[in-house]
Amino acid sequence: MSTVYRLKANELNHHFLEQIKAEFADKEIEIVITEVDETEYLLQESNKNKLLKAIDNVKKRQNLVEINLQDLQ
Over the chain, what HEC string results? Predict the structure, then answer.
């Protein structure tokens, strides 16, 4: 079984550890810490293509969604 938690380091607390203990009980677990670079995620090939297409749409003024800010209040 694999579980991924994504949180900021300052969010680590006693409750988080208790949650892990409850989920995995007496099983042996491995904890790996990896710093997340959001720009790296956004530039993965599938995301990069979506972003480039969106930029192209904006430049061509195609497939745009307009929102009236007054409607959001």
Answer: CCCCCCCCHHHCCHHHHHHHHHHHCCCCCCCCCCCCCHHHHHCCHHHHHHHHHHHHHHHHCCCCCCCCHHHHC
- Residue 7 and residue 16 in contact, taking contact as beta carbons nearer than 8 Å: yes
Distance (Å, rounded) from C-alpha 58 to C-alpha 64? 7
Judge contact between 58 and 65, C-beta under 8 A.
Answer: no
| First-last CA distance in the chain | 44
Q: What is the pLDDT of residues 8-27, one digit of tens each?
A: 899 999 999 999 999 999 99
Model pTM?
0.46
